[in-house]
From TrEMBL:
UniProt GO MF annotations: alpha,alpha-trehalose-phosphate synthase (UDP-forming) activity
Record organism: Halalkalicoccus jeotgali (strain DSM 18796 / CECT 7217 / JCM 14584 / KCTC 4019 / B3)
InterPro entries: Glyco_trans_20
Domain of life per record: Archaea
Protein name: Alpha,alpha-trehalose-phosphate synthase (UDP-forming)
Gene Ontology annotations of biological process type: trehalose biosynthetic process
Coiled coil (UniProt feature): none
C-alpha cells in the first residue's frame, strides 16, 4: 500500500509552529501493579498513529489521565514521554466519575457516537450529559490555553471535543486550530435529532481546518451547517464556511497506516505455526474479523451471514473457520452490554449447530494479541470480513491489505465503511444488512481463481 504515515502529513504543515494535540485517550498510562508503578500503552489506532508525530515534533499532548498512578508521577499534571526516551510532554487532565459518566459514557458515546453513525435508536441527548460535556470541553480548552500560545498549532482529535475549539478561540483569537473528526458525519435529517446541533456546529466552526475521512462526510457537514446556522455562508465548491467573522475550511483526508511497518511485522517467520496450533485453526481455510465490540461494526450481522453460509454451502463445513478477534468496550453502557450478550448467544448457537468434536465453525479470541501475532493472523487469513454498518474509515481493512505480502487474501468489505472509497475496487463488496448476499459473497470470495485473487490484492496494495 502507498498510504503515507500520518506523521509525514502533519510534519509538512507545521512549519515553525509548536504542535499541541488534544485527545480523550492518552498515549501512555501509569498504573500500580503489585506496589510498583508500570507504564503501558493503551490500545487504539489513533494514539498509535499520533505518537510518532509527537516524538518527532517534541510538542505537547493533552489527554485524560486514566491511569491510577498518573498524577503520582506527574508534576502539575505533566510528564515527559516516552518513558525510555522522553521527547515530548504529556499534560494530563483529571476527570471525575461524574465526568466519565456524563461526558464520556453519556454525551460522547450515547449521543454523538450513534448519531454520527446514523443509528437513531440508541441516541440519548440528555441535557445533563451535554452540560457536563460542555464543562469538560471547557476544562480541556483551559488546558490548551495554558500549554500553548498564539503561534501554536492546536490539533483536536475526534468527537469528544465538539465545543473545545470555541473556548480556545475566545482566549486565543490568532491561534491555528484544526480538528480531525474520525467518525462519520450524518445527513441533515439525522443530525436534526440532536437538540444541541447549533452549539456543536458553533464549536466546530471555531477551527481553521476541520477534517473528515471521506468526501461524503464533508458534504453532510456542509449541508448541516446550511440547514442549522442561518448566519453562516457555505461555499460547497470550495468547501468553506464563513461564520462569526472567520472562515473554516472543511476537507477530507483518508487516514492511512504505516504500511512498511505493517508489512515488516507480517513478514516475520515462525509466528503463525504456534498461533494456528494454539487456536485449532491449523490447516483450515480462515476468515478473520478484528473489531472492538461495538454495534457499528456489524458483528451480529456477520455471524448471521456465517450461519447462513454453512446452511447454504454444507461442503464448507469442517474445512472453513471464522476467527473473531476483539475485546469488549464501553460495557458500562446498556446497549453495549446487550450487544455482548447477543454476540455470545450467536456464536454459541452456530458452534452448537454445526460444530463437531474436532472442528469449531467460529473461534473467538477475546484478548488483544501482540502485534506480531495479529499481523501473522492477518497475513495467513484467506479472507478478512469487514462488515461495518457505518464506519468513519476502518483501519482493519487497510492493515489486512498491507499484511498480504503474498497477495493471496481477499478483503470482503462493507460498502458503508469509509475504507470502501479507496479499497472497494479490489474488494468483494457487501451490504451487511443482507444476510443472504453476504453469505454468497463469502463463498464467491473463497471461490475466486488464484490469479484473480492475486490481481485484486496487488491492486489494493498499490493504492
Amino acid at each position: 500500500m502507498t498510504d503515507r504515515p500520518l506523521s509525514e502529513t502533519v510534519l509538512e504543515g507545521l512549519a515553525e509552529r509548536d504542535l499541541v494535540v488534544v485527545s480523550n485517550r492518552q498515549p501512555y498510562a501509569h498504573n500500580r501493579d503489585d506496589g510498583e508503578i508500570t507504564v503501558s500503552r493503551p490500545a487504539g489506532g489513533l494514539t498509535a498513529g499520533i505518537d510518532p508525530v509527537m516524538q518527532r515534533t517534541e510538542g505537547t499532548w493533552i489527554a485524560w489521565g486514566d491511569g491510577d498512578a498518573d498524577f503520582e508521577v506527574a508534576e502539575e499534571g505533566r510528564v515527559r514521554v516516552p518513558p525510555d526516551d522522553p521527547s515530548y510532554t504529556l499534560s494530563r487532565v483529571e476527570l471525575s466519575e461524574t465526568d466519565l459518566e456524563r461526558y464520556y459514557y453519556g454525551y460522547s458515546n450515547q449521543a454523538l457516537w450513534p448519531l454520527c453513525h446514523g443509528m437513531i435508536y440508541p441516541v440519548r441527548c440528555d441535557g445533563r450529559d451535554f452540560e457536563r460535556y460542555r464543562a469538560v470541553n471547557r476544562r480541556f480548552g483551559e488546558a490548551v490555553v495554558e500549554e500553548s500560545d498564539e503561534g501554536s498549532l492546536i490539533w483536536f482529535q475526534d468527537y469528544h471535543f465538539g465545543l473545545a475549539p470555541r473556548f480556545v478561540r475566545q482566549e486565543m483569537p490568532e491561534a491555528l486550530l484544526t480538528q480531525f473528526w474520525h467518525i462519520p458525519w450524518p445527513a441533515p435529517k439525522t443530525f436534526a435529532v440532536c437538540p444541541q446541533a447549533d452549539a456543536l456546529l458553533d464549536g466546530l466552526l471555531a477551527n481553521d481546518l476541520l477534517v473528515f475521512h471521506v468526501a461524503e462526510y464533508v458534504e453532510n457537514f456542509l449541508e448541516c451547517v446550511a440547514s442549522v446556522l442561518s448566519e453562516a455562508t457555505v461555499d460547497r465548491e470550495d468547501g468553506t464556511v464563513e461564520y462569526d467573522g472567520s472562515t473554516t475550511t472543511i476537507q477530507s483526508f483518508p487516514l492511512g497506516i504505516d504500511a512498511e511497518r505493517t508489512e515488516s511485522l507480517a513478514s516475520e517467520s515462525g509466528v503463525w505455526t504456534d498461533l494456528a496450533e494454539r487456536y485449532g485453526i491449523d490447516g483450515q481455510t480462515v476468515a478473520l474479523g478484528v473489531d472492538r465490540l461495538d454495534y457499528t461494526k456489524g458483528i451480529p450481522e456477520r455471524i448471521d451471514a456465517i450461519e447462513r453460509f454453512f446452511e447454504e454451502y454444507p461442503g464448507r463445513r469442517g474445512e472453513f473457520t471464522y476467527v473473531q478477534n476483539g475485546s469488549a468496550s464501553r460495557s458500562e453502557i446498556e446497549s453495549y452490554e446487550y450487544l455482548q450478550q447477543r454476540v455470545d448467544t450467536a456464536i454459541e448457537r452456530v458452534n452448537r449447530r454445526f460444530g463437531t468434536a474436532t472442528w469449531k465453525p467460529i473461534v473467538r479470541i477475546d484478548e488483544m494479541l501482540p502485534e506480531e501475532e495479529l499481523y501473522a493472523l492477518y497475513r495467513h487469513s484467506d479472507l478478512a470480513l469487514v462488515s461495518a454498518l457505518r464506519d468513519g474509515m476502518n483501519l482493519v481493512a487497510k492493515e489486512y491489505v498491507a499484511s498480504q505480502v503474498d497477495d493471496d487474501g481477499v478483503l470482503v468489505l462493507s460498502e458503508f465503511a469509509g475504507a470502501h472509497e479507496e479499497l472497494g475496487d479490489g474488494a468483494v463488496t457487501i451490504n451487511p444488512f443482507d444476510t443472504q448476499s453476504f453469505a454468497e459473497a463469502i463463498d464467491r470470495a473463497l471461490s475466486l481463481p488464484t490469479e484473480e485473487r492475486n490481481e485484486r490484492m496487488a491492486a489494493q496494495r498499490r493504492r
